Amino acid sequence: MHIIGTPLLFFAALLPFSLLSVTAFGLRTTAAALLVIPVLTFWMVLDLTIGVVIACAAIPLLITAAIAAKHVAVSWVWAATVILVVVGWSLQIFGHSVFEQRRPALLDNPLHMLISPMFIAAKLLVALGFRRDLAAVLSEQARDKARDTECGQR
How is residue 111 annotated by DSSP? Predict the structure, then answer.
């Protein structure tokens, strides 16, 4: 659910800001692109490999959002944004309640929204065998969650 829901929410955040055309450093771009740069930089500072993986996913989403904003009516952009937010959040809540038996962490701390893409990228890199150093951390985290869930059911 994270793999689908998080990119949908990210794309939903990009769409309205893609409506705003801006010029920065002599280049014409969208407000979405300008707002994403510090976040991508943040992720790359925390972990370069994970940040690059996220950037590789973010760039096509930025391009798609810019194209959509340029070629469809503003009302369609906002309608798509609302639909994507509802679907993205529904997937997050469903996944957390059914598979993790917990409420999403970002309900307690909205900054977890910045961590979600890193978590997904880390899990992807581990699954592909590229970041064995993260495998132990993620499996320890899974054990802690299982223990917390088990204690909560008693």
Answer: T
